[in-house]
User: Which sequence fits this backbone?
């Protein structure tokens, strides 16, 4: 495999684990504010990010590569209110989309069609993650200003359950 593609895939393991860590921090913030439904939503989001990291790891292992794992940064975003947390979520997902696109571009440039095919799932997933973050912002804007509306929204998010990724390697 091309060295640049491999390095980007290895880095992505770290980025996905960082995403998990970031969303755990967001989850902690929401629980602390009494919004346990939002807290649950972000905790499950963290589980999904861990799954993404493990998929990148598995893909490299399946390619006969032993990826070197690096330290995960401390989540460093100062959190001030729930709306800001949601905005940071969308911003972070847009950043992750750009990372996936960069790997895709590197794979394309060396005709690594197998990696492109692997990444197709993530391209679709990023579309969904951005849509979900956008949707949360819209609904928070609509209902978050009213205590009853916020309670209902929080209760709904409390019902989110974890499911394993549809991609199996
Ligand atoms: Fe693994 Fe939310 O991107």
Assistant:
């Amino acid at each position: 495999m091309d060295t640049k593609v491999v390095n980007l895939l290895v880095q992505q393991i770290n980025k996905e684990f960082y995403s998990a860590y970031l969303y755990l921090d967001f989850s902690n913030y929401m629980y602390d504010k009494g919004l346990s439904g939002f807290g649950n939503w972000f905790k499950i989001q963290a589980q999904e990010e861990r799954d993404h990291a493990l998929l990148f790891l598995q893909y490299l292992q399946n390619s006969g590569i032993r990826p070197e794992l690096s330290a995960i940064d401390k989540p460093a975003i100062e959190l001030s209110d729930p709306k800001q947390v949601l905005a940071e979520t969308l911003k972070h997902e847009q950043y992750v989309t750009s990372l996936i696109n960069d790997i895709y571009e590197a794979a394309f440039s060396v005709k690594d069609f197998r990696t492109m095919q692997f990444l197709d799932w993530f391209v679709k997933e990023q579309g969904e993650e951005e849509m979900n973050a956008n949707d949360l912002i819209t609904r928070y804007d609509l209902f978050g200003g009213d205590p009853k509306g916020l309670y209902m929204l929080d209760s709904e998010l409390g019902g989110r359950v974890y499911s394993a990724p549809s991609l199996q390697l």
User: Anything to note?
Assistant: The mean pLDDT is 98. The helical segments are 3-32, 36-62, 82-109, 113-143, 147-157. The chain has one domain: 3-67+78-158.
